[in-house]
User: Which sequence fits this backbone?
């Protein structure tokens, strides 16, 4: 990755009494695909719309390849965008839709036709030139929208939950296609989604947003394994909340002591945030600290749902070969196979 | 099976009764307009009589010019206004809906006397003042035709897409919004044309000689000719309707979905 293509500094946006975006900062390197992930209403689409010029910010700046474009009109920024809702122009054919942006840029017809033909081939719709939006399925419409956004060779491609209206199978296929195209064309891309699997699967980095702020931005591995905040830990992947008692820099869980990673807050009762694969389950020889509720066979691994003595339900992910002897109702010993844990208020 | 046949019979009966209700008077009027005076023969004498009357071409020309201006004014005012209401003026939509109903509430006499006084002198002395009044009278219908058309499309998304692809607001309106709602614009246009072609009260009150005023005057001399005029006007309106429907139905074919 080379230097930053898109730099956003201190963006804030208030709608009435609601602060939709609060001091939002992000840098996207040339050719990088960054996802903005967060629950509904966290401000990710507002951020994208401000970057696209479709919304004004109260404060902050947007810089594209070294040029400040904060006050530029949407139609003069060279950005491609794919929207959540189907956005093809219903009166134009597929080819005319894709050619629209080139026409606005006064590209000669011959060159235009050539570019439209090759981008439609690239998205697998080479023989759909003459069709209209209502003659295409949802997945095909989003492919055309993607081709229309890419054909103008945008400096940044903005994707605003383009897969959320599609069914699961089409969504999985199309997200792989987006990544393939993005890598082959080297387009700098900012991708907004509320689907963590989608974000983690195709992004170079993922930014997790909450209440208008960027909580953490990092690679999917770092986000999953070392989340910076309790919100990120809970939002990304499955997380167990296991009761413990904190004392200074350590926390006691199941009678063992673990180092606390996030040191804000005081001593006393807390919950430790533990991933299912960080939770070991062993058959109890005498008295265990939990009881097996169910065991679900998932193939190579199995999910074991357990109930702690205080009634807390937790889950562990174990290789199926090691968990065959665990049966519902059986007492087990749970332990944590990591030295550092993230804690949150009980 | 029996229930389906009963349903079909009821539907056909409604269709036949409605057909008789609409077409029998038309048939009777057409038959009457083709009578040759007191003789019991049929022909086109009444239609020939229309063209022989002085002022036919002049008055039809005035009405068509006034109508054309009204159509242009109506589209120039209503299309951007309704588009803006859908994009960012949602909170004013209720108010505008109420305002557009006002022409149905106030009598035309009030419009003719009150509104005319508000017009500048050069407008008061021109027959084209009628175009402005026609825009107001047609507003309840044209507003709703355009409103329905715009409601059927994700307007915000497609305008955002157009702007993102490099189209200015003006280009977005002309290249995306207007073609997208073309059937609704054509419906509004038809309503405007039908209303303008048949408007009599305002023109008469303001002492302008338009085609409907001329029709009323000449009709008093010849009852069969008057019926022929009515039938002729109706067919003219139908031809326009079919023309607009044809233009509006372009590109509306569908094929099976595939993935």
Assistant:
């Amino acid at each position: 990755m080379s230097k930053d293509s898109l730099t956003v500094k201190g963006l804030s946006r208030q709608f009435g009494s609601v602060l939709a975006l609060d001091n939002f900062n992000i840098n996207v390197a040339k050719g990088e695909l960054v996802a903005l992930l967060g629950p509904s209403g966290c401000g990710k689409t507002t951020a994208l719309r401000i970057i696209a010029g479709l919304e004004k910010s109260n404060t902050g700046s947007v810089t594209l390849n070294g040029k400040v474009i904060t006050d530029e009109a949407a139609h003069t920024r060279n950005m491609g965008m794919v929207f959540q809702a189907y956005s093809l122009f219903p009166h134009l054919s597929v080819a005319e839709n894709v050619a629209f942006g080139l026409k606005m840029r006064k590209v000669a017809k011959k060159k235009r036709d050539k570019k439209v033909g090759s981008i439609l081939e690239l998205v697998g719709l080479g023989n759909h030139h003459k069709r209209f939006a209502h003659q295409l399925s949802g997945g095909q419409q989003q492919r055309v929208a993607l081709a229309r956004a890419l054909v103008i060779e945008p400096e940044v491609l903005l994707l605003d939950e383009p897969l959320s209206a599609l069914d699961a199978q089409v969504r999985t296929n199309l997200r792989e296609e987006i990544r393939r195209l993005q890598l082959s064309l080297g387009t700098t891309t900012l991708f907004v989604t509320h689907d963590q699997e989608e974000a983690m699967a195709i992004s170079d980095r993922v930014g997790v947003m909450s209440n208008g702020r960027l909580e953490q931005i990092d690679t999917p591995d770092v986000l999953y394994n070392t989340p910076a905040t309790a919100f990120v830990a809970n939002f990304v992947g499955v997380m167990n909340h296991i009761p413990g008692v904190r004392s200074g820099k350590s926390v006691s869980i199941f009678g063992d002591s673990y180092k606390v990673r996030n040191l804000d807050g005081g001593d006393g009762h807390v919950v430790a945030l533990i991933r299912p694969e960080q939770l070991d389950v062993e058959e109890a020889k005498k008295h265990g600290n939990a009881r097996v509720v169910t065991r679900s066979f998932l193939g190579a691994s199995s999910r074991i749902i357990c109930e702690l003595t205080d009634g807390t339900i937790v889950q562990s992910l174990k290789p199926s070969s090691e968990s065959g002897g665990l049966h519902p109702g059986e007492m087990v010993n749970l332990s944590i196979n990591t030295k550092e844990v993230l804690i949150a208020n009980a | 099976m029996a229930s389906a046949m009963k349903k079909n019979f009821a539907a056909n009966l409604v269709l036949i009764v409605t057909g008789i209700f609409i077409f029998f008077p038309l048939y009777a009027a057409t038959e009457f307009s083709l009578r040759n005076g007191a003789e019991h023969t049929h022909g086109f004498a009444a239609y020939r009589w229309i063209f022989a009357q002085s002022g036919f071409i002049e008055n039809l020309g005035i009405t068509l010019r006034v109508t054309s201006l009204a159509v242009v004014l109506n589209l120039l005012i209503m299309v951007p206004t309704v588009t803006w209401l859908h994009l960012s003026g949602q909170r004013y939509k209720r108010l505008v809906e109420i305002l557009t109903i006002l022409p149905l509430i106030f009598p035309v006499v009030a419009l003719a006397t009150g509104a005319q006084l508000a017009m500048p002198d050069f407008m008061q002395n021109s027959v084209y003042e009628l175009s402005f009044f026609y825009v107001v009278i047609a507003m309840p219908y044209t507003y709703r035709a355009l409103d329905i058309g715009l409601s059927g499309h994700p307007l915000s998304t497609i305008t955002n897409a157009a702007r993102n692809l490099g189209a200015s607001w003006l280009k977005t309106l002309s290249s995306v919004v207007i073609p997208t709602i073309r059937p609704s614009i054509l419906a509004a246009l038809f309503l405007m044309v039908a209303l303008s072609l048949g408007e009599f009260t305002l023109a008469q009150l303001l002492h302008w000689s338009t085609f409907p005023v001329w029709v009323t005057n000449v009709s008093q001399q010849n009852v069969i000719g008057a019926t022929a005029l009515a039938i002729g006007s109706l067919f003219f309106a139908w031809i326009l309707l079919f023309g607009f429907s044809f233009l509006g139905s372009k590109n509306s074919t569908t094929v099976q979905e595939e993935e």
Summary: The radius of gyration of chain A is 24 Å.
